[in-house]
Amino acid sequence: MNNLTIQRLFVARFLAALADQIMLFAVPVIVYSQTKSVALSGLAFFIEWLPRVISLPLAGSLSDRLGSRRIYLGADAIRAFSCLIAFGLIYLFHTGYFVTLTIFMAISAFFYAQSYISLESLIPKIVSAQELPKAQSKLQAMEQSAMIFGPALGATMLAIYEPLYVLLLVGSLYSLAFSGVLLLKIPNSALAKRERGKLITQLSSDMIKAWRIIRIRPNLILLTLLSISINLIFGVALATAAAITTGYFERSTTEFGMLQTITGIFTITCLLAVPILLRRTTPFHLGIFAYIAVVLCGLIISGSNNYWLYLICYMAILGIGGWFNIFIRTERILWIPKRHLGKTIGLIVFFNQLTLPLSGLMVSFTASEAEAKVLFGVLALSALAVLAVTFHKLKSSSRILNYA
C-alpha cells in the first residue's frame, strides 16, 4: 500500500475523530444549557455510553465477518446520516434538544466502537510489520490532536452560532471522512460465509473461558475492583463537567472549552512524562500514587467551592489518572496466560467500561450540581476503602515488583 493512500486514510480518521471530540464536548453543554438539569445531563451520559460499551464485544466479530473497510465506511456513513437527520428534526420540526441529541448520541456511540475497532483491524492489513509502529504513532498523534482541537472548535461554534449548527458541522466532518475512505483503493478482507456463523458461538465461548480465568485468579479480581472504583470517579467527572463548570460555577461555554482543551494537553504531557518517571520508580508505585491522587481530588471537588481548585482537580483526575491505567495494564498482563490474553483483557475492559454508563446513571439521580459534587466524595471514600482492603495483597503478590 503506497504512502499517499495511508496518509489519506489517516486524514479521514482525523476528521472522524475531530467530529467525535466536538460532540463529546458539545452535547453535555447543549443538554445542560437547554434543560438546566444535572440529572438529565447524567442521563444523557448514561444513554451515550451504554451503546458504546455494549457494542465493544461485537465490533471485532463484525469486522472479521464483513471486512474492516466495509464496517469502517458503514459506521461513518450512518453517523453522518443520523447527525444530519438530528439537525433536520430540530431545525424543521423543532423537536426537543434533549430527546433528539440523546438518540443521535446513542446511535453515534454504538458505531464509534465499530469505526475504532475496524480501523485497528485494517491498519495491519495495509501497513508492513516494519512500518506498523510508525503508523500507530501517527494515528495516536492524530487522535490526541483531535482531543485538543475538538473542544476548542466546539466552544467556538457554540459561542458564535446556535447549538444545532454544531450538528451540521459534525455531520459534514463524518461525511468528509466517509468520502475520503470511499475513494481509497483498500482491500476488504472478510471471512468466508461458512466461517462467519461460527464467530458468535466462538465469542460466547471466549467470554466464558475469560471469566473462568479471572475467577480462579484473585489478583485479577482485585485489580478489576480497583479499576472499577476509580473509573466511577472518572465517569462522574466527565458526566458532571459541563453542569458544574457552567452551572455551579457559572462559567461560560468558552471557559468550559478552555478547560477541556487544557485538560487534553495536560493528559498528553502526563503520558509523555511516564518514561522519565519509570526511571525513578516502578509502575506499581506510580499507579498507587495516581490512585491516591484521584481519590484526594475527588474529596477536594466534593468539599471545595473554588473554581480554580475544581479545574486543577479535574485535570488531575483525567491526566494523572492515566498513570494508574499504565500500572493496571502492565500488572494484569503478567497474570493472564498468553494464549488467553486477548479474550481475558477484552472481558476485563468490558467490565471497566460499564462503569461509565453506571456513573451517568448515578448522576441522573442527583437533584442539583451541589449533590453531584457530594457524589465525588462518596465515590472517593469508597475507592479509598477498596484500596485499604486490597493494598497489602496487591503489593505482596505484585509481579511487577517481583520482576523489577
Q: Which CATH architecture of the largest domain is right? A: Up-down Bundle
- Report the CATH topology name of the largest domain: Growth Hormone, Chain: A
In whole angstroms, the N-to-C terminal distance is: 41 Å
The main pleated sheet reads as: none
Average pLDDT figure? 89
**Topology as a string of helices (H) and strands (E):** HHHHHHHHHHHHHHHHH
Secondary-structure blueprint:
Elements: H1 3-35, H2 38-66, H3 68-93, H4 97-126, H5 132-160, H6 164-182, H7 193-215, H8 218-248, H9 253-272, H10 274-277, H11 283-303, H12 307-319, H13 321-333, H14 341-353, H15 355-364, H16 369-397, H17 399-403
Written account of the structure:
By secondary structure, this protein is mostly helical. It has helices spanning 3-35, 38-66, 68-93, 97-126, 132-160, 164-182, 193-215, 218-248, 253-272, 274-277, 283-303, 307-319, 321-333, 341-353, 355-364, 369-397, 399-403. It folds into two domains: 1-190, MFS general substrate transporter like domains (Growth Hormone, Chain: A), CATH 1.20.1250.20; 202-404, MFS general substrate transporter like domains (Growth Hormone, Chain: A). Helices cover 86% and strands 0% of the residues. The two termini are 41 Å apart.
